[in-house]
Design brief:
The protein is mainly α. The protein is built from six helices and five strands.
Length: 208
């Protein structure tokens, strides 16, 4: 199948954003943005779960219950991600690197399923990783699954409202090309947040 011309720049943007995001926690280098490689060490479990301010939302053991201002933990397995039913808190809680990476992994994996898979998975079906190595692997698998959906999308599907039936967004009401764009911006802005979190974690603290 020939890829629709309007999908080409969106896929290129997705691939660029995905690689930069994946390289940032995994290393050994990440593209600085101008083609220069910058060395980065692997993400540690302590950094993955680092809470730089009070009352962060993060990923936690189900046995420990949700964090401050959260009312539930979503996700399968021993770990879940802090959440609360809509409407969400204002201002929104600060979220850890673990929360942000889990959020992206869930979004990609479930959107892939609700577009080219069973169309049945929920947040409570998807395992949440409690440590960095597993979280990175889960993100990569989800990113691969979403890319496979994009590559298989024809021109008619891009204009089809509800081509994705992902239940945690506007997918059932929007043409699929809008969803593709939305996922790209989610990768770009959460990827930038994850990069900043890594920079802050390695920076020296203010003197006491």
């Amino acid at each position: 199948m020939t890829m629709p011309a309007r999908m080409v720049p969106l896929l290129e943007q997705y691939d660029f954003a995905r690689k930069r995001l994946a390289d940032r926690p995994a290393g050994p280098v990440v593209d600085s943005g101008n083609g220069t490689d910058v060395a980065v060490g692997p993400l540690t479990d302590d950094e993955y779960l680092w809470e730089p301010v009070l009352d962060c939302w993060s990923v936690r053991r189900h046995s420990d219950g949700p964090g401050a201002r959260a009312t539930l933990l979503v996700g399968a397995g021993d770990w879940g991600r802090d959440a609360t039913p809509a409407p969400h808190s204002v201002p929104p809680p600060f979220t850890t690197l673990a929360w942000r990476l889990s959020h992206l992994t869930e979004m990609l994996a479930l959107r892939a399923d609700h577009t080219g898979g069973s169309r049945s998975l929920t947040r409570d079906d998807l395992p949440v990783a409690g440590e960095a190595e597993s979280a990175i692997a889960a993100f990569e698998a989800a990113a691969d699954a979403w890319r496979a959906v994009l590559v298989a999308t024809d021109d008619a599907a891009l204009d089809t409202v509800g081509h994705s039936s992902y239940p945690y967004g506007s997918d059932p009401e929007d043409p699929f090309i809008d969803i593709v764009w939305w996922v790209n911006q989610e990768l770009l802005h959460h990827g930038a947040e994850i990069a900043l979190m890594r920079d802050l974690h390695r920076a020296p603290a203010w003197p006491a």
